[in-house]
Amino acid sequence: MYREQDVAAPVIETAMPIGKNARFVIIGAGISGVLMAIKLRERGFRNIVILEKAAAMGGTWRDNVYPGVACDVAAHLYSYSFAGNPWWRSRYAKGPDIWKYYHRVARRHSVLPLIEYHSEVVSAEFADGAWIVTTSDGRRFDTDVVIAAAGRLHAPVMPQIEGRESFAGAAFHTARWNPAIPLAGRRIGLIGTGSSATQIITALSGRAAKLSVFQRTPQWVFPVKDTPNAWWRRLGFWISKRQWHRYYLQLRSETEARGKAATASEEGRKARDQVCLDALAAIRDPQLRAKLTPDYDVGCKRLVFSDGFHEAVQHESVDIVVDPIDRIVPEGVVTSDGRLHELDVLAFATGFDAHAYIRPMKVVGEGGVTLDEVWRDLPLTYRAIAIPHMPNFLMINGPYSPGGTSSVVGIAEAQVDYILQLIDRIVGAGVLLSPREESSRDWLEAIREKSRHSVWGTGGCQSWYLDKTGTPTLDTSTLSELQAQLSTPQWDDFIERPR
Ligand code: NAP
Q1: Residues with a CB atom less than 6 Å from ligand 1
Q2: Residue 311 Cα, ligand 1 centroid: separation in angstroms?
Q3: What is the pLDDT of residues 255-294, one digit of tens each?
Q4: Do 206 and 344 share a domain, yes or no?
């Protein structure tokens, strides 16, 4: 068993700077990885490699191409703050438009040439003051700093259902959707009712001959209006930065209010719950309404925002099946009442392994301490950014980052600004920087205590937010709170050693 005192050393102040020749390996070319590279380039660093396991950049927006894929966080907030886009066509952007936006920004900032595609990282090992990062095809990258930006929701989960492999038609997870498979006029099965499934139901209702939705748990759905940004409005944003900024601030305060879902005041909660209840009450068929009514608190699972779900689900082509799935057979899905639901296509909207984080990658820190050892009980981090005993190894959107319905882009920017302050220290003073184990434990316990008492922990539901102990693995902080918390590093919480 490792102990901090085995590896900690006194703080020193006089190491050799690494300067602008410092080497950086970023893991993942999604929104966060690209952001990190842009910011490092702005700081004058040139020795940057982004290792990306797939054949294209874009993370979530590369992987998710299912019908109706979009982002339910307003597009102007789901953009980098330094690369605002006045031309978003509507309040909420569609998945392909988001991918194009991020690709364009990466190209403009000369980040694309830094990406090594088909480069899945299998290990990162600390030796002699630096890291050796190895990819699955055996390539080795030596680096001074590692930044893991692999995202939280990238490992699809396929459910263990008897006969899953036997289905004769096309079958795939929502994050592996095959756009070549025709859908119009076909019988489609959809397992799951989360945010992804809700978008698919809304897109396929009335288009498929039949859409059978296998629902284990109903979801609270908050209706929103996706208003188009007319050409004159977009032009106005482009011409008048002030008008655009006003709109941005309005969106931000609305999203901030949503972001408080976990800790909302009694009054705020009631108002939000009522919107969801009113939308349900408008469902005409009482049996369908009953099927769609959750028995847990609003906001316990990640709240689903949708323009059109409540109408879509009432279309005659949509069948909400609540009898549990018994097995999958070549012809379709058999439910526990013995009924065979015949299908041509079967989609698994069954979510992601949100607790894998950077694993199964093997990470070995100072003194041979492994990440699996440090994370044996809990994914111990300091401010979701750094890990004890892993000097100069940093993360974006790591365990216990804020979540819920905030913009992940704003969160990544706040974390990257903090990481840059650490990097200034690392390269300026030429040191190895890692958080103290005790500071990490204190920070983590405070976050867990807050989230345990939030609706995520007390609302009476199961969700991907919860760990094995039923404690949410998310920070309840809003973006403004996070920005304040991350404005300046508390250097006493770190151990510094010469390289
Ligand atoms: P999810 O929220 O984890 O939902 C998974 C669904 O699959 C749940 O309904 C779950 O039922 C069901 N399920 C899992 N295993 C099952 C089984 N064996 N049998 C029957 N049902 C099963 O996944 P997701 O919809 O892909 O969304 C994941 C996250 O991605 C979201 O929470 C959100 O953070 C993000 N997302 C965001 C957007 C956006 O617009 N911003 C869009 C899509 C996704 P139970 O509820 O009973 O477990």
Answers
A1: 70-73, 153, 159, 161, 174, 191-197, 214, 216-217, 302, 325, 349-352, 462, 464
A2: 20
A3: 777 666 556 677 778 888 999 999 999 999 999 999 999 9
A4: yes
